[in-house]
Amino acid sequence: MDILLGLVGKDYVMTVSDRSQARSIVVFKHDEDKIFQLDDHIVMATAGPQGDRANFAEYIQRNIQLYKYRNDLSLTTKGAANFTRTELATFLRKSPYQVNLLMGGYDEKTGPSLYYMDYMASMHKMDYAAHGYGSYFSFSTLDKFYKKNMTLEEGKEVMMKCIKTIHKRFLVHCPKFICKIVTKDGVKEIEL
């Protein structure tokens, strides 16, 4: 029942995730952080079964750090997204991970970017994206209110509208959400 939301603003990328960890009909906790920081300027929001989600995210996180140490060079957001997509495709043929991802980052040359990936290893660069059951309710809100070059306050307002719609219309209660933004200054968690 994971919910991931993301959008690209004027000089930032915003990712939002619910904080529930559940399996079947049981909710284990409401303080799970599903948004992993891969680098100083890249985050990856993850959805899927807890084991697959945590293992795959940590695998990607460690390999991106290893690349940085070996080459004395950080991957761009596009490079990290392509590496992640390749790994998803490789595992799809061996022992697949059932993870859906939103990867956002900020690069000095290209600015903010957001990549949508699913468990079948398809990838697309998008201005806004959503995964999970919450996407059924939030895409209409994002379609209506998203515009290019939004300020941070406008982006927060759109995300709050998405969360309010999910709270109002979704059968399953998701009480808490976490929001992280990536700017030229790095990654930080913000309140919505």
TrEMBL record:
InterPro entries found in the cross-reference section: Ntn_hydrolases_N (IPR029055), Proteasome_alpha (IPR050115), Proteasome_beta2 (IPR035206), Proteasome_sua/b (IPR001353), Proteasome_suB-type (IPR023333)
PROSITE patterns for the chain: PROTEASOME_BETA_2
CC per GO annotation: cytoplasm; nucleus; proteasome core complex
Presence of the UniProt keyword Signal in the record: no
Key word GTP-binding present: no
Keywords for this protein: Cytoplasm, Nucleus, Proteasome
Predominant cellular place of this UniProt entry's protein: cytoplasm
GO biological process, one term: proteasomal protein catabolic process
Coiled-coil ranges per UniProt: none
Cellular compartments annotated: Cytoplasm; Nucleus
Family affiliation: Belongs to the peptidase T1B family.
Task of the protein: Component of the proteasome, a multicatalytic proteinase complex which is characterized by its ability to cleave peptides with Arg, Phe, Tyr, Leu, and Glu adjacent to the leaving group at neutral or slightly basic pH. The proteasome has an ATP-dependent proteolytic activity.
Quaternary data: Component of the proteasome complex.
Name the record gives this protein: Proteasome subunit beta
Source species of the chain: Amorphochlora amoebiformis
